[in-house]
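Here is one chain, start to finish.
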Amino acid sequence: MTEATENPGTTGSDENEDAAGVPQMTTVERAEMLLAQDAAIRSRIGAGATLDEAIDPSNKEFGPLAHPEQVQMRVAKRALMLKEGIAPYPVHLDVTDTIEAVRARYDGKLEPGQETEDVVGIAGRVLFIRNAGGLNFVQLSAGDGTKIQGMVSKKEIGADSLKQFKQLVDLGDHLYLRGRVIASKTGELSVFATEWAIAAKALQPLPALHKELNEDTRTRKPYIGMIADEKIRNMVRNRSKAVASLRRTFDDHDFIEVETPMLQTVHGGAAARPFTTHMNAFDLDLFLRIAPELFLKRCLVGGIDRVYEINRDFRNEGVDATHAPEFTMVEAYQAYGTYDTIGQLVKELVQKTAMDVFGSHRVTLLDGTEYDFGGEWRTISMYDSLSEALGEEIVPHDPENPEPNGTSVEHLGALADKLGVERDDVENHGKLVEHLWEHFYEDKLYEPTFVRDFPVETSPLVKGHRSKPGVVEKWDLYVRGFELATGYSELNDPIVQRERFVAQAKDALAGDEEACDIDEDFLEALGVGMPPAGGMGMGIDRLLIALTGATIRETITFPLVKPLN
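Its structure:
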């Protein structure tokens, strides 16, 4: 039995408040209590009670943690349906047409009051009911928000059926209507019902649909958001379109999609703090994947020259407008490519996604502003741009050169202190260069911009630059002030890779929680021979942020939130 308790403070009252007499209950205890209340309501209905008589609005019997009055009433309607032999959740209904299809077929083609002999069977969620005596009007909504009016008439279905309709149907129910397609006297496209049935009885009431949903409801109950808010529905659909577009572009370039392990014995492929778990069968501690990189590179070793994965990653780090602990990323690797060729691929991926989702490289963000992904994209050098911002030359440090070289850690640290730049517990030349660069540029690069040529210390999986010692062939793509993607000329020298892993492992021993460990299996794979390659990684959630102006929580269909209890 779980010991989780229902928290009486979740409605806004003091969490420690017991004076109101709200009981503390385990999850199982409350579930059993709710079942007992359901059974009591059904028993009263079975004994001949009316709907009003069957419920206990004050909850005298079951207390403040029991069903509220509206839910009790819907439970009573369910019980009444069962008593009368009506299935509240039927297995099958004769749905012949979607609401969208009926709209597409008849919109603008019927005059006010015009009737057809075309009979359709449709179903949707009830968003509005109006009782006009012998004629009821009901608005049904499809999953994508397309709406249609239903008309339920005593003349057509009979007095008893209409009475039952008024008694049993609530807002939020899924309702089936069968009837002729007509236009009402006001010109509203309608289905004039000859038959109706509840397709699924909603026990929980919907929120007021004319009001803006609060953030708590959006994140904790995204299914409510999908019903109530067109923007949330569109985000789910646009995300699906974006992923489909990425797959098409990769397919056009002969990439193969693979799947790599989420549970790993050694975490690597990125600088990030991992989640840990334990596998009972092997009595083995494991890491949740922070990136698929090292396994995708094993595919290159195996002869799959163009490979990608759209993958779920987990990083045990902070949460903000562009970071989530569980997120989706696409990574791709191309044999005999470089960070130049992979940069062109990423540009094509983003531009085609914008075109496929929104029909243009120029997109309209949620705040109403426009953003242009078209044309050629700007490119800057990290060291050159930092030197320009500081007014002095910052020289890369080559760790393979035994002689002192490059701008010293001490001087970079002094510059950071002077500017108030936050410093890490474990520092080196590369980390300080990146922190200083971020201070000047990170949130200021609005137009699409490739920032190229990073310090070697911060990029242990990247090939050294062809002509610049101490620098690696890496770019980060910035859009609207945040990093969208990253790309490399991939390191494939096993000896250099071992040196980089050892340096990372030493940083980890010194307290760097983001440093990766030594992956001997990967080093052995590199020893078999990996062709030179370009590689990239891009967050799917961040791509949606870039295309829409939403926060990361708004792009994730089911974001992780801290439980109220």
